[in-house]
Amino acid sequence: MIPLVMCIDDDSMVQMLSEIIFTDHQFCKEVVKAYDGFSALQYFTDQSKLDSKDQQIPRLVFLDISMPISDGWDFLDKFSKNFPSMQPQSKIIVLSSAIHPEEIEMANAHPLVYKYFSKPLEPKHILALKMDPDFSQYFTVN
Amino acid sequence: MHGYFFFITFIQPNCLPPQIGLPDYFQYMSEANKTFTLESNASKEAILSYHLDNGPFAVIEWDSAFRISRWSKKAELLFGWNSQEVIGLHYNDFNFLPKDEFERIKENINWIDVGSGNTLIIENKNYHKNGQFLHCRWHNSILRDKNGKMISIFSMIEDISDLKQIQENLRKSEERFQLAVAGSKDGIWDWDIANDLAYFSPRCQEFVGEQFDSHISGMEAFVKHVHPDDITSTINAYKLHLYERKEMQTEYRLKIADGSYRWFLVKGQAIWNKDGKPIRMVGSISDIHDSKQMEEALENSENKFNTVTDHITDIVNMIDRRGIIKYTNQSVEGILGYHPEELLGTHFLTLVHPDDQIRISERFHVQLNSKGPGTLIQFRLRAKDGSYVPFEGIGNVQLHHPALQSIIMISRDITIRKKAEEIIIASEEKFRSLVHNISDIITIISANGEIQYQSASARQIMGYEENGLRKRNIMEVVHPDDLQLVLTTFQNLVLNGGNSELKEFRLLNTNGEYFYIEAQATNQLNNPSIAGIVVTSRDVSIRKKAEAEKQSLIQELTKNNADLKQFSYIVSHNLRSPLTNLISMTNLLDMDTIKTERSLKLINGFKTTTTRLNETLNDLIHILLVKNNTNIEIKPLSFKLALEQVTQSITAVMENSGIELEIDFSGAPNVLFNQAYLESIFQNLITNSIRYKSPDRVPKVLIKTFKNQQDIHLVFSDNGIGFDMELVKDKIFGLHQKFHHHPESRGIGLYLIHAQITSLGGSISVKSEINVGTIFSIVFKQKMT
Fold first, then answer.
1. Cβ–Cβ below 8 Å for B747 and A68
2. How far apart, in whole angstroms, are the C-alpha atoms of residue B651 and residue B644?
3. Domain spanning B300-413: which superfamily?
4. Does A20 sit within 8 Å of B738, measured CB to CB?
5. Alpha-carbon span A131 to A117, nearest angstrom
6. pLDDT band at B439 (very low <50, low <70, confident <90, very high)
7. For chain A, does the N or the C end have fewer beta carbons within 10 angstroms?
8. What CATH fold (topology level) applies to the domain A2-139?
9. Do B741 and A35 touch (CB under 8 A)?
């Protein structure tokens, strides 16, 4: 299982559903919830102040685009500027309900975006990630 | 027998041509007729022959086959052939008629054959036996029998060669005279002395400005225009010529059309009859005023000359044929600084500017061979101080004048005029450069539409070179559809003067395309330096195109907007019915039967989501209505009543929160607005303050209104948690912009009131500070447009 996954979404229902799916598929040990880009960045800031052995960096971040105050784009901008050291550790998946092809293209083109998933998050997404060479190390068959 | 017929016919008056000499002949024939009736038949022929031979005319008789049967002695004399030579001959048989007369003769013969007429007078050419041409008038009498058949033709021939010649000469001489009269600058007069009838040529009449009737005007009519002082000498000159045959050439002053007197030279020649009595006099008058005046001036004494010349500002020089200055007046000192005596004996060319010397020298030598005044010429003369002064001068060659024997040169200092000209040229250049550099096309058009001038800017806009359209009519390049408008405007301007403005009409450019211009025209026909319609035109094609583009864009946007609205309605309504079903289902779900915690969690989430969806949809429908409602009722409203309405509807929420309202509507108790909107504003702002109240203190709200100029302001402030202005910026009134993660926040309330306020011309702004509070300022526009 992935030790830590972060979910950034202003919709608590989305957070709840994601958590249920993670649990059902034994996807991660722990979930960090952030309700906008700003508080997500705050989490990384707090972690960066800790000793590296104490740091808890999510290996995977699910990021919504449309959020109040600080949206997904804002998060991507600031994350790429402020936390370069954490970028290789944290893969970002955009999880959005956007229907505009432009926005989907923009997300796919962003260097920090690992994948783009259309909402809702489904078991097939999780299964695919478990098969992904980047994450398969966390899912060794016992 | 035919002799009888002949005389009956012949003496009919209509056969007698009214030509010179015929009355005598008529008389003669009448007498012959009397004689004829008395004699026997045989002697009749003898007597007739005698008379015909001794009459004034040549007589030829032709038989019915046009063969000569009689050839009188006079005919022998006239044509040269004797009767033996020609009797029995057809007129073609000998060289009697020129070939070119044949056709005419044939026509006449046809007429004789067919017609019933008995006389025929023709003029034609004949040959003399020696080959000379003769002009003859033929009086032909046709003798017919009782049945009208031709028996013979009696021709009496009159030689009119001399008459013809005289007529021709007269015509030529008359023509020459008319030409001379018309072409002459002199007036011509012709006086019938016996009857005192005088003819005055148009030129004479022009001189005195009076029209003369040549049938009734006597010499007196003209002489009355002669100056009273010159009457006696004029009459004497006439008398000397008419009675003593002295040459008639005198000068007198005539009162001319404008009432002033001018000098004229009169010449005349009389014709006297054999008794020595003058019967006619022909002559001319010529205008010699200018030369007379010149002479008069010259004839004045030298003293007077000096007095005059010394007091005029012009420089007067007298130069001999070598160019040596013989005299100079005092003015030279004032203008050039030389004392007159200094210049005496010097060559005038030494004073002339080197650049002008060749030109002036050439002119001088040309003029030496002429007489009288030359033409104006410009040159520069060197002043004593070495500077050059511009002059304009005229030379008058009087080398043969006994008293003068020199060329008189009158020169005028034109420094001031030159300067003025330079200024004019400069200003003209300024105008030209202005015209060249402005983008407007300046066109000067004459009253008939012909282009007189067009500025260079026409090239950029129309493609024509400067003045490329000159002499063409402006109407040629106007679009046919605009022609009526342009023509009417132009004609009105020509007739009524003043200015006209023409907005948008099309002109043709050199590519054959029409482009839009806007023009301003001024009637300057009465301005002598312009004498035309001045048109300033400007290319408005780009503006015109932009307008058209804007128009089509607006149309497209309007259509898109309408489509989008329609789409929003359909979406909202189609979502509503399944949504209401979902709400009913969640309400009917029996939660007690759900046992697992996971299912319970999911169903609760399902309920919450459904409720939120319903609220969001309602908000969207609400916004659509505000955005689309064009028929909002505006009326004066009391802030107090509107607020009370709201506080009553949300009493429970307010009491729960413990919010305190402080109200001050004294500055502006009423507002012109829509009631539902005003209530919506209060409700949204109050619930906003409750929602974002600080957990640390009692929520307080201050609402205050006041008037500022035309508008009414409302300030709504609270002591809530506030937000970071930096983060929010201009997003706060946008759709679905939420700035808190408050469970009830839907991000739509502020957007809604913003839409409501701006839709009625007002505005809303916000200020906030974290943990201090938020202030909303609203302006209600009171002057509805």
1. yes
2. 10
3. PAS domain (3.30.450.20)
4. no
5. 16
6. low
7. C
8. Rossmann fold (3.40.50)
9. yes
